[in-house]
Amino acid sequence: MSSDDEHEKKEEVAEEEAPANDEEEDSDEDEDGEELLAMLTERPAHVAYCPTCTFPAEYCEFSGRLQECKPWLETQAISAADLKERGKAKKKEKVDGEKELPGGKKKKKQALEVVVAVTNRGGRKRITSIKGMDLFGHRLDEVAKAMKKQLSCGASVATSPGQADCIEIQGDVLDILLQRLPKKFGIPEASIFKMEDKQKVPAFAKKA
Amino acid sequence: MPLFQKFKKENISSASQTKSSEQRKIRNRIVEQFPTLTDHIDTIIPPKATICAVKCQGHICLITVKNEVLFFQERDGPYFPTLRLLHKYPDMLPPMQVDINGCRHVLGGANVMCQGLTSAGGRLSDVPEKTACQVRIEGKQHALAVGLTTMGSDEIREVNKGPCITSLHYMGDGLWDMNMLE
Fold this sequence. Notes:
The complex is a heterodimer. In chain A, β3 (about 115-120) and β4 form a beta hairpin. Chain A contains five helices and eight strands; from the N terminus they run αααββββαββαββ. Residues about 1-30 and about 90-100 of chain A have low confidence and may be disordered. Chain A has a six-stranded mixed sheet, covered by helices on one side. By secondary structure, chain A is α+β, with helices and mostly antiparallel strands. By secondary structure, chain B is α+β, with helices and mostly antiparallel strands. Helix content of chain B is about 25%, strand content about 30%. In chain B, the strands form two sheets. Chain B has a five-stranded antiparallel sheet. In chain B, strands 6-8-9-10-7 form a five-stranded mixed sheet. In chain B, β4 (about 70-75) and β5 form a beta hairpin. Chain B starts with 11 loop residues before the first strand and ends in a 5-residue tail after the last helix.
């Protein structure tokens, strides 16, 4: 049995069956029809799902991805030429790192960079914060520990809701960090930024 | 909001294998709810197989066998089959057919309106309210969604206005995408 004929017949009988599918219609078709009916009522019924849109072939036109489904539909011996896209167009695959929040706002893609900033904590005390170490594959608590040892300072991971975690080091260790980050932590110089007057500035400006 | 619209792996809280006493209870309940499955229950849930109860946020429990999700239930309510299972055993649930123009909406998770069922392309089965049913589309062989009637079929014909079937699980929702779980 060529899959061609098989499927064509299936479609035909299905149209008849769909409306009154509770009853086992003994159609006035020939024996072929009865056999087919038996096959159709065989359980579990076999369903072919489209590899692209995951729907059964008859719903590809509603998937929003009819164009991509077409090649598979051809193999199922369904002419997709007449089918029109009747589904809601699916949003494109989200760009890596982009998150769509409820309400349609898009969360900014987290740039692959490390930002070092120095802030004041009362009087002469400073805190150096490093954001973005985790984007380079480092475990923040391990980095904090290493920093503590190397710099003889207090260091911890600061978590704040809604913001990426950052490492906070007591004191102003900006310059030392800028030396250490590329060497000891393998962060490419081009990805390191520092905050200068509330502006993000590349830490390793190329000298003209 | 439809049950499984935003359902993802993160919504799963725990998965545990059920004891054989629990398994028997589940099997019996399913056969009770879906008498057409009496002959097939052993294929769907083989007696030796382990049923895994996967608990999810929102008091939802998924019944899986061999990593395939078969049924879902809310709190301790009735079991509903996943669409994929329904496709294999289409006689499980009474069909309620909507005309073709409703297809797009059902696929987006919308509830079914009376007019869809009473229109030219629609077909109603005689069911009371609060019955599990499958939503079908004229001209299509496979069910599009699993729903619960909010009105009896007589009422639907009479009132012919407003939603009559709540869509619980539809093709393309989070649960549809997740038919194989680890």
